[in-house]
Amino acid sequence: MRRNAATIATLLVAACALSTGAIAQKDTETAAPWPNRPLRIIVGFPGGSSPDLTARAFADPLSKALGQPVIVENKVGAAGNIAADYVAKATDDHTIGLMINGNMTIAKLLNPKLPYDPLKDLQPISLIGVSPLVLVAPLNAPGSNAAEFLAAARKSGDKWNYGTPGVGTVGHLGMELLKAKAKMAPLHVPYAGYPQVATALIAGDLQLSLLPPALANAQIKAGKLKAIGVTASVRSPLAPEIPSLSEAGVKDFNLEIWNAVAAPHNLPKREAVRLASLFSEIARSPEMRQKLFQQGWTVLGTSAEGLSNRVKADTALLGGIITSQKITID
């Protein structure tokens, strides 16, 4: 009797195990596919801006890969932080964001009251593309080369002005870093965006600024602005004819703007990994490389880990400038 009872017990345990396994397998097989509705890419800048153009370039190939529509939505304001906050708080598992450096690095350092923490509330997906900035000046700027121009800037003290798209932007922090390294002291004048900065330079209201290569090259080739140098240790393929600022004696100055994809921290790991793989694959395709290059980007298409490493490095670099110059946004 005891032996029969033990045998029956063993059979019952095995049956339960088989049943549990079958249920788990069934649950896996019947689990809702992802995505099961349109995926939204949130952009914090207006239509026609660089992040917007990048997001829209990915929408169609990403839609084909996922089998669902991909919709780009613009939620403009606060240098992209309104959109970043929206993404950080999304809970539908179908919302991601196309963001710039500041949204994912130093936003909270600049404004402690910011309603999201980029390092805690955003999940890195992929670093899409990078680009140095170009130091430009009006056509009548002094000096026949970068070294002579920087010497004139040092001599002018705070009589010169430089323009940026706003306090805390990479253009602003980059100029503050350049001021420290080149030992010059021009005053900061914030504008609504890079196009307005370029217009002020052409009008002679500003003496220098850091502009994205696509905008800078257009004005330089049109004979409206003078190129001084790019913010990299070597020349950039985006503007190969423009010397690096290191050639003018500005050492250890390597600054880039970038576009990246991030998701809410609560997006399931499986979906995040899939998105990272797709964005990387699409970004590195010959067609997308060419399209983004024409928009002024050197394509990287990194893994989530690659973006995470870049976020940490830039947070340290730009955070150091914020601390040393006591830069804040109220």
Automatic annotation (TrEMBL):
Q: State the InterPro entries in the record.
A: BUG, Bug_dom1
* Name this polypeptide is given: Tripartite-type tricarboxylate transporter receptor subunit TctC
Cleaved signal peptide residues: 1-24
For this UniProt record, the keywords arranged alphabetically read as follows: Receptor, Signal
Species assigned in the record: Rhodoferax saidenbachensis
Family, according to the entry, reads as follows: Belongs to the UPF0065 (bug) family.
Q: Does the keyword Thylakoid apply?
A: no
